[in-house]
Structure formats: structure tokens, C-alpha cells
Amino acid sequence: MKIAIVDYGMGNLHSVVKSMQLVAAEHAEVVLTADAAIIDAADKVVFPGQGAMPDCMAHLQESGLIASVRRAAAEKPFLGICVGAQLMFERSEEGPTDSLGIFKGDVVRFPAEKMVDANGQKLKVPHMGWNNMTIRREHPLWAGIADGERFYFVHSYHFAPAEDIAVIESAYPYTFAAAVARDHIFAIQCHPEKSSAAGLKLLQNFVHWNGN
Amino acid sequence: MPLAKRIIPCLDVTAGRVVKGVNFVGLRDAGDPVEIAKKYNDQGADELTFLDITASSDNRDLILHVIEAVASQVFIPLTVGGGVRQVGDVRRLLNAGADKVSINTTAVTNPEVVRDAAAKFGSQAIVVAIDAKAVNDDNSRWEVFTHGGRKATGLDAVEWALKMQDYGAGEILLTSMDRDGTKIGFNLPLTRAISDAVNIPVIASGGVGNLQHLVDGVLQGHADAVLAASIFHFGEYTVREAKEAMRAAGIEVRL
Which of A123, B127, B176, B204 has the fewest Cβ atoms surrounding its Cβ within 10 A? Predict the structure, then answer.
């Protein structure tokens, strides 16, 4: 089995590659690639991203990999991470982005006027650090991960889905969709590759997931 | 169940090895960087910070091997600082597996490096380290120092933090220079003034001698994260014990 990690020139993919290789072990070959043919031939695809969403989309367009990414999302187990996951929505408040629109909905900024905790203390943006993941709907990729487990986040924008696809929620301070899923697609806002044992468990579940 | 306050052990690296010593005196080899990083990860460290204290530029690239080795086996966020002078240095460290790069003296001498690096790699990857100490008797005004606290800059620390936020810093690593190595706790008014002024997370550093100091940094200093070195390295406390103390004080932690 082959798992392709899409490299379209956005950010540091070292940890994504190393963590996937660790959990894939002998079960799958993990390749970091900017080659459309390798993505097309892969059994599963990981679609990461880091930085500003408009920049990521511009890089993806320049890479010539959009068609392959779309085909992969239409056909096989597909994991979007962070800005890669954000790119799967229709629009972003971060700037004009002709993004993929695989999911209906927007990517919105944590609004300044809401960033206060229960004690009245200011909440910082980016939302950076370990926050709880609450199961909204059971999903095979969450097998063996506790309800309420903490994952590592670093982001200033979050998904606002316009369809009922949220599987995991987090709160800062209000509840938002931290992971969404439909069919064989799973997209997560935080960084499983930086979330220690729980994050590795999620990636390992992806290695063994047939998309059902 | 809100966002957890973070505990970050800081490791000094020279010539590719982790060392420990008191105020840079009597440095001893502390062991293999990967093994030490794994140990802190197992104890529940939320992130790790590596500070390159290599004096000779010949050996600077050795930190890259350390980061690469650690990032291949320990999957929590890694910050690297020390000797970052240009955007190319930031790129090399990120490519080696660092998640964030901390810029200190260069932020003062050439702030455009912060702006350029944030534009290129995203604010989430850029930490500005500020070494500050009080310049009046009632500890209500603080100045930025560089070169390990030896050189005054004339910059007001709070204004400087706001400026670095504008330049694209995603986080501030604030060291109370007048407390560093003293083990009497963070400069809390300084920490609070900066944390309340900016909208980005602030990591408090400098002066930690016991677990109550970590609690004070969060509850009184309003820090989003606390960094400590010696209390962990010399086995006085584990990261887990630190988190248990913070939880007992009503602070949200990842345990």
C-alpha cells in the first residue's frame, strides 16, 4: 500500500512525513511527493498545509496538483490537516481564495469580541496549545482515542461548515468543528503529527482505514 | 474544559549535545538529545525549546542534526532559538523539523528579519524572544536587553512586544533578565504587563526555582505558557509534578 503526502511547497512537512512513516511501519510506504502521477497511483492521500490560506491555495494552483488532489478526495481515503483541511471549504475570511469547495461552508477568524474566558481574561489568537477534542459523532479514525483527549492546535481561523459534517468539536471559548468527515474524507484543524501519542493513534487509524 | 496552559522544558545545546550547568558555568554533557526529549515527552511536556548556545560559528550547523533527530522521534512542538540572524537560518531550522524559531538579538538589530520570516513561513512559526529587566525602583518600567542581558537597547519592553506583534510574531518568549538563574520566580508585574498588552501568547521564562513560581506565572503573570530549565534538568521536579501542582491551583493543564 502506498500513502502519498502532497507537497505543494507550503511549510514544513518533516513531522508529517516522519510520523506517518513511524505509524505505517511495514503496512504502507509513505512518500512525500509533488508528482501528480504518484498521487493518482497512491492508495491514500494526506493533504497538509501551513501558513496563510490564500498563499496555500496560490501554491497549490502553481503546483499543477489540483486535479490530482480533487480526484483523490473523490476516490480514496483522504486526510486533510490544518490549512490543507481549510482549503477543502468554499471560502475564507483570510482573503480571497478560490478554494476547493469539497465541503460546503467557510473558514472564519476567531472574532476579537468573543475572545474572553469565563473569568473575563483575554484569550489569545492564534489559538495555540493543547485543547480537548469532544466526540460529536463516532468515526473509525477516532478508535482508541478518548473522548476529551487533548490535541495540539495552532490557528487563527477555523471551519464553519454549512453542512452536518462535524465529527469532533473543540471550544475556544465557543464550540467549533475541530474535525469534519464525509464518506472517505477526514479533515482536521489541529496537528495530529504534533499531538504525541493520541495524534499518532489517529494517523495509525488512517493507515488502516478503508474509507468506510 | 478550556485550552491548557503549557509547560515547556528548555534544553541548552552546544556543538550538537545537550548540556546543563548553572549560568553557563560548569557545563556538563547531559546526554543524548533524543533520549532527553523522549523523557520529557513521556513526562507530559507540552512543547520543547532548544537553545543553541554554541559559541563558535563552525559548529552552528550541528543544531540542525539535533533537531532532525529529535523531530523524527518525538512528536510534540519544537522551538529552536539562539544565533538566528537571517531568514535563511529560520528556513534551515524549520526544514530540519523545528515548528517554531525564536529570534532574539536579531529582532532588535534587524527587525525586518521578523517581518520577512513571518511573511514567508507564517506567524505560527515565529517566536520573538524578549529579555527584559526593570529600569526603575518600583519595577514598573522595563527595558529590552540583548546579548544575554549585557547590552541595553533603550527599548521599552511593552512597546517592543506590541511592535513585534505588529511585525508578525506569533508568540513572545519573555525572559525576566533580572531573575534569570536566581530561582526566586518570574518578574510577575513585567510578565503581566506584556501578556495583557499583546493578543498573542506569552511564554514566561527566567527565575523559576519551585512549582509555585510556575503557578504564579500563570495566575498572577497571566502567562499562556511557562518555560523552565534547571528545575527539570537536575531532577528536582518532573514535568508531571509541575502539572499536578498547577492543576491543584486550579489551572487547566494537559495531564
Answer: A123
